[in-house]
Amino acid sequence: MAFRSQVSFTMPQRIIHWSMALLIFFNLLFPYGMEHAYRLMRRGETLTPDQISSANIHAYVGFAILLLAVLRLCLRFFQGVPTHPAEEPRVSQIAAKVAHFTFYVLFFILPLSGIAAYYFGIATAGELHSGPFKAVMWVLIAGHVAAVLVHQLYWRTNILKRMTHG
């Protein structure tokens, strides 16, 4: 059974959280090199070295996200996570569990669908990757930020401290 801290996430959990956040934002905000290269590949065109490099940056960031997701899941299993603040309503606790579960699914399914599309040419995987999977990730991020703001400003639980400096 995993240890459950009452106060904060561990330092490795915080480092992985923020590293993944940066990498995910990078790939969400700058997908154009990969999208352009993928369109050219689907039409059977030859990519220039610059186009390949641009696509590979997106792919390698995706591989890093996948690796960090594995580490993050292991840490979650072995070190646990802080309990929900007492001020948080039960319905919000359930919503948080559903959102975090969905985040973890996307941490794996986004990189894996990208790998399937780019390296194996599976068109459906590419469509899901750049369509609904990406859209759900954006919605989750917006909801996550909104939930943190509610905790900080309305319930005043100072929940952000658990993921910043313990």
From TrEMBL:
Listed Pfam families: Ni_hydr_CYTB
GO biological process: respiratory electron transport chain
Subcellular location: Cell membrane
InterPro entries per UniProt: Cyt_b561_bac/Ni-Hgenase, Cytochrome_b561_oxidase, Di-haem_cyt_TM
Coiled-coil zones: none
Primary subcellular site in the record, as a coarse category: membrane
SUPFAM superfamilies from the UniProt entry: Transmembrane di-heme cytochromes
Keywords, ordered alphabetically: Cell membrane, Electron transport, Heme, Iron, Membrane, Metal-binding, Transmembrane, Transmembrane helix, Transport
Needed co-factor(s): heme b
GO cellular component, one term: plasma membrane
Molecular-function GO terms, alphabetical: electron transfer activity; heme binding; metal ion binding
Membrane topology: Multi-pass membrane protein
Family, similarity comment: Belongs to the cytochrome b561 family.
Protein name: Cytochrome b/b6 domain-containing protein
Organism: Agrobacterium salinitolerans
